[in-house]
Amino acid sequence: MKFFLFLIVLFQLGVAHSKNISITSNSNLSLNCKFEKVIIKNSEYNFETFTKDQIRRDDIDELLIFSKIPNSLIVKNLSNFINNIDLEVKIYNKDIFLIQAFDKDRNYSESAVLTFKTGELIHEITRNIKQENKIKDISFYRCRNDKDL
């Protein structure tokens, strides 16, 4: 668990100093993602983990990912926010897919990392970024290509 938190922190730090767009593969994916667990950090919970048996979360029935070299990446059905905003960070290659987007005030963000080899998707939502007590919701899913089902 601490490893995943470390990856997320590393991602947050690394994105600020890395290239924001890197598309090296073309794709047209339709993924089915099953919810596994969530880590919540808010006024009630301090990075507490809840499994699918402990908390109700929907699966992602059809996560659509379209990429086109050199800089086009479109993601649909991850969340309403991602569906309706331009992505600030867009990375897609044969191993990983990574995105991040902020609202216009930069007080809300969503990011996602999908590792193709394992099918693990991590979707992080951060609210109140500018405040001391940020709210984080980090959901973990296991994804499969709809063609493989």
Would you write up a description of this structure?
The chain is mainly beta. It has one domain (20-148). It contains two helices and ten strands; from the N terminus they run αβββββαβββββ. Strands 1, 2, 3, 4, 5, 6, 7, 8, 9 and 10 form a ten-stranded mixed sheet that branches. β8 and β9 (120-127) form a beta hairpin. The protein is globular. It starts with a helix and ends with a strand. 21% of the residues are buried.
Question: Which descriptors would you attach to this protein?
Answer:
about 150 residues, mainly beta, ten-stranded mixed beta sheet, globular
Topology:
Layout: H1 2-17, E1 21-23, E2 27-41, E3 46-51, E4 60-68, E5 72-76, H2 80-83, E6 89-92, E7 96-102, E8 108-115, E9 120-127, E10 135-145
Parallel strand pairs: 1-6
Antiparallel strand pairs: 2-3, 2-4, 2-10, 4-5, 6-7, 7-8, 8-9, 9-10
Quick gist of this model?
The protein has helices at 2-17, 80-83, and strands at residues 21-23, 27-41, 46-51, 60-68, 72-76, 89-92, 96-102, 108-115, 120-127, 135-145. The chain has 149 residues and is mainly beta.
Count of structural domains: 1
How many strand elements? 10
Q: Outline, from the CA principal axes?
A: globular
Low-confidence stretches: 13-17
The pLDDT mean sits at 88
Strand content: over 45%
Main beta sheet strand tally, sense and closure: 10 strands, mixed
Helix content percent band: 10-25%
Structural class: mainly beta
